[in-house]
Design a protein that fits this description.
Blueprint (H helix, E strand, L loop, with lengths): L3 H15 L6 E4 L10 H8 L3 E8 L2 E7 L7 E6 L5 E6 L8 E6 L3 E6 L6 E3 L3 H4 L12 H8 L6 H6 L9 H11 L12 H24 L22 H4 L21 E5 L2 E5 L6
Antiparallel strand pairs: 1-6, 2-3, 3-4, 4-8, 5-7, 6-7, 9-10
Helix pairs in contact: 1-7, 4-7, 6-7
The structure holds a DNA duplex.
Length: 282
DNA sequence: CACCATGTTCCTTG
DNA sequence: CCAAGGAACATGGT
């Protein structure tokens, strides 16, 4: 469920559930999920700590924990990969088949479930240092984007997926942003004018804000048992109306462009699907 | 069975 | 040395 908007909505949801809670036990059901530390190290580092703050950076969930007595603060990172989910539930429920980690709180528990197993939990904060600016923060404008794109001959779509250029865009919202900015995903990054960069920055912000607003306004199934993709893939019966026209191009190959009526196309760039409108993204 | 999927890292190739 | 592309990770849905 993970691009910036989904993680942001999730973090807002988790904040009141977690902040102030003490972690009584930590159970790791899939060892690969925790890294680079060993499972036993993670368990020891988490046990007995209190959650001081839950925040987001890019697609990462950052959990700040207060130390045992001596004030040794630490930050635990969670990344959801492609299919990771995190929620807090009562202790009476059966654990899902793909639970990879569980934190026992007082009378409740946090469940990290991840069928595909690309998600991650650990204390190595170095990944955060490599991230580009927050697209919704002040440090992101046309000049910054242009500088980060540099002289790259790579297609702009691919550059937007690089978390060092801007933090939090993924395959869906990269396509969406380019459509809003009317920029072809195949343009070489170095060829974008400053006007293009300005439109792209505004488009990215608009697309992400709208997705966060939408995700905050729809009743979400955090555990995702009904397979609604939390808030992707609103084609599920009963949810389509709420999320209709959520995506202008993503997963809409063969359908008509809302702006010019052309048929949306799908292409493959660097092994990943790109959706675009050949009519208005010249 | 074939192909597709919201991500990141590592390796190879040019 | 760098840029770019592809494989790998692993599982489920269509």
């Amino acid at each position: 469920m993970p691009e910036l908007p989904e993680v942001e909505v999730l973090v807002r949801h988790l904040r009141p559930c977690l902040e102030g809670c003490k972690i009584r036990h930590c159970e790791i059901l899939r060892e690969r999920t925790v890294r680079p530390e060993r499972p036993e190290t993670i368990r020891q580092r988490l046990c007995g700590l209190r959650v001081e703050e839950v925040r987001r950076r890019g697609k990462y969930i950052v959990v700040r924990l207060s130390g045992r007595g001596t004030g040794s603060a630490s930050e635990c990172l969670l990344h959801l990969g492609m299919t990771g989910r995190v929620w807090v539930e009562g202790m009476d429920r059966p654990l899902p088949a793909h639970a990879v980690m569980v934190w026992e709180l007082d009378g409740r528990r946090l469940v990290f479930s991840d069928p595909r197993g690309f998600g991650w939990c650990g204390f190595d904060g170095s990944v955060l240092k490599r991230l580009g600016p927050e697209p919704l923060g002040r440090g992101f404008d046309a000049g910054v984007l242009a500088r980060r794109l540099g002289r790259s001959r790579q297609a702009i779509k691919g550059r937007l997926l690089d978390q060092g250029v801007v933090a939090g865009l993924g395959n869906i919202y990269a396509s969406e942003s380019l459509w809003v900015a009317r920029i072809s995903p195949f343009r070489q990054a170095r060829d974008l004018t400053s006007a293009d960069c300005g439109r792209l920055v505004r488009a990215i912000r608009q697309v992400l804000r709208r997705a966060i607003r939408l995700g905050s306004s729809v009743p979400l199934d955090w555990a995702g048992t009904s397979a609604d993709g939390l808030f992707y893939f609103g084609r599920k019966p009963g949810l389509e109306s709420a999320v209709q026209e959520r995506f202008a191009v993503y997963d809409r190959a063969g359908e008509r462009c809302f702006r010019c009526g052309e048929e949306i196309r799908r292409a493959v760039q660097a092994g990943r699907s790109t959706y675009y409108c050949p009519g208005c993204q010249g």
